[in-house]
Amino acid sequence: MSHKISPSLLSADFLNLQKDIEMLNNSEADWLHCDVMDGVFVPNISFGFPVLERVKEIAKKPLDVHLMIVQPEKFIQQVKDINAYMMTVHYEACTHLHRTVGAIHEAGMKAGVTLNPHTPVELLEDILEDIDMVLIMSVNPGFGGQKFIERSLSKVSRLRRMINERNLSTLIEVDGGVNLETGKRLLDAGADVLVAGNAVFSAPDPTQMIHQLKNL
After folding, report:
1. Which CATH number fits the domain 4-214, given the four candidates 3.20.20.70, 3.90.1310.10, 3.20.70.20, 3.40.50.1370?
2. Would you call 81 a catalytic residue per the annotation?
3. Domain boundaries defined on the chain
4. Which pLDDT tens digit goes with each residue over 133-182?
5. Binding residue per annotation — 35?
6. Which runs of consecutive H residues, i.e. helices, occur in 82-197?
């Protein structure tokens, strides 16, 4: 299976958001990654559902919604209402993770679980069969433009083994410090989806950068 590229809206130009989304619509990007931050679970605030309601009107790529918030289960209906394809919640934010995953599926969306850099992949052993994707944070969540954490490569490799041993189709997505160099190494380690923010939107030609990432 060819890997997917999910450019992060967090790194887009918020004063020219429509222009950037139209660029993504016409690119080889597979998904549009949307980071929702609450200033509680992570030390930053990004954008909320009023913005995403407008995004859904013009985005032609499936929305890959990553909730970096406390009690994400309270917002399943709102994520569904913006026609999200994938809803991803943090392992660290969900006391009843299995119930939350089930509710996401009942709402008609794919369900992903995110792991912070300090959280081992082995903690997903009892839920791996129930989820569609694992998002490995390769930086500490909350801000774009951070340095890639090298240990993320071994986490991806361990998770890939766990998925393959169970003969599952669970995707591995990686977010944080992804560029042409780290992206290639992550794909070699077993990643399926690359989230790229600064690498795309800070490039002289973002469309060409997406093309390069897609063809690693």
Report:
1. 3.20.20.70
2. no
3. 4-214
4. 999 999 998 777 778 999 999 999 999 999 999 999 999 999 999 999 99
5. yes
6. 97-106, 152-165, 180-189
